[in-house]
Amino acid sequence: MSARLADDELLITRTFDAPASLVFALWSKPEHMKRWMGPANFTCPEAKIDFRVGGAYRAMITSPAHGENWFGGVYREIVENKRLVFTFTWDNDGPSAGVETLVTITFEEKGGKTVQTFHQRPFLNVERRDSHVGGWTSAFDKLAAYAAQIAKEHIA
Amino acid sequence: MPDTLSVTLSALADPTRRAILARLARGEATVNEIAKPFDISLPAVSRHLKVLEAARLISRGREAQWRPCRLEPRALKAVDGWLSRYRRFWTQSFDKMDAYLAELKAKEKRK
After folding, report:
1. In order of start, what are the domains of chain A with their CATH numbers?
2. What ipTM, to 2 d.p.?
3. Which end of chain A has fewer CB atoms < 10 Å from its terminal CB, N or C?
């Protein structure tokens, strides 16, 4: 309960029946990205990708019900077929506007299939980046340990 | 002026503040009670509480001298909603990714 309380990160692991080089290309090539980016009822007619560290991408998804939604970011780390780190921000005025997020994806090929581990978290300020140097997981571990300790004290 | 969600997420970015929220999830507490398990000074805890209060993650009693702190679930709900929208976005995108990969594979076979 306590760990869930401050949950502001997303972790989605998926296994795809394809080699890592192909799954990676689905992220790095606009003609591929246009074919899958966006929720079920959306299409992605626009995608521009400057695929290099420091390079930007910008894309748009659209649906009859929701209209055009633009988003984009900058590539921060590229390890071909293995690891991809980029920022992700919506252009729109919705509640998520202006909240920059950091996406980290790792690709691991196992017997022709690829395990894609997708991680997204807010990317807000220096403080947050610093806390990541020590490892975000350790913060969660501490929180869990602390909650356990409190629970014990409570019973005792 | 930064929007509310950014303020909430910034407040949540600090591990100590997350631990304080975890403590308050069990019920309201005074500054002294909150500070007890931490290896930091009371003023430092007070500063964290101010950030949490500004982000409306907690509220503090005005009347009582010891001003107990309590969790305000609404801001956390906004974070939850933000996160679940992203979860839906990516989960459904990855479903399409799966279908597209199958399509590419079928094309490859026909060649």
Report:
1. 8-124 (3.30.530.20)
2. 0.82
3. C
